[in-house]
Design brief:
single chain, OB fold (Dihydrolipoamide Acetyltransferase, E2P), 2 domains, 5-stranded mixed β-barrel, two-stranded antiparallel sheet, 8 helices
């Protein structure tokens, strides 16, 4: 039996039976973890008000060898996330951020960069950062940290600088138009390429001082969604909901 205490961000909280909850959380040192908070659904639970999705917490849990689920024994709230979840758009965005790390973060593997990305993105959003800009910055960086979507500086096939580019069908990287060779794909303009380069050298508050046009953000969103689907072979459930909500507006 091993006890652990760490700073963490809660990714998911789901009910288990009548009294308990299963908590999935991300730590810097041990990556994604999952444990049962016993009695968390009781009226006078010691976890009352602490298990907020995307909240930053100090969490204590223990693990037994051979068991998939640990047991959460204490949670101290460090930074609530309820301001982000005050409206439907914020709730969906929060789920979208969490879904990325539920997919891309690994269990029992240090996740310093992913943790810092989620932490700083949430901090910026809670301080009033533009949600659309934050989502595009975040999704580009998750793919980059997963090693499948580097900053678009040179064509990986010929080495020439990318001024415009093409994402091949079912591709996970950008190539120049010459190397695409007429293959069907998604053309990517200079504005989207420049934004992706900026995300590699500027943090979110700096990007917000000179934000790209809305059309550029839409192009980046479609591009990163295609890359994500090609890698996962499916779409994130939260993103499907976001698109459906847009369609009914």
């Amino acid at each position: 039996m091993r006890f652990h205490t760490a700073e963490a961000i809660l990714l998911d909280v789901v009910d288990l039976h009548d009294r308990d909850r299963i908590v999935t959380f991300l730590t810097r040192e041990q990556g994604k973890k999952k444990g049962v908070a016993r009695g968390a659904r009781r009226k006078y639970s010691r976890f009352a008000g602490q298990l907020q999705p995307l909240a930053k917490v100090q969490i204590t849990w223990f693990e037994k060898e051979g068991r998939e689920l640990g047991r959460v024994t204490a949670v101290e709230l460090l930074r609530p996330a309820h301001r982000l979840q005050a409206d439907l758009e914020g709730i969906l965005l929060g789920a979208y951020l969490a879904d990325h790390l539920l997919e891309f973060a690994q269990e029992d593997e240090a996740s310093e960069h992913l943790y810092r990305l989620l932490d700083t993105t949430l901090e910026a959003l809670l301080a009033g950062a533009d949600r659309d800009l934050a989502a595009r910055y975040y999704e580009a960086w998750v793919l980059r940290l997963a090693g499948i979507f580097p900053p678009p500086r040179e064509c990986p096939l010929c080495g020439r600088p990318l001024r415009t580019a093409v994402l091949p069908v079912a591709g996970e990287g950008l190539v120049c138009a010459d190397c695409a060779g007429g293959e069907r794909g998604v053309p990517v303009g200079e504005g989207a390429l420049e934004f992706l380069r900026r995300t590699a050298r500027e943090d979110l508050p700096t990007l917000q001082r000179r934000p790209p046009a809305a059309a550029v953000l839409r192009e980046v969103e479609e591009l990163t969604a295609r890359v994500r689907r090609a890698f996962l072979h499916r779409e994130l459930r939260s993103y499907d909901v976001i698109r459906q909500m847009r369609e009914v507006r």
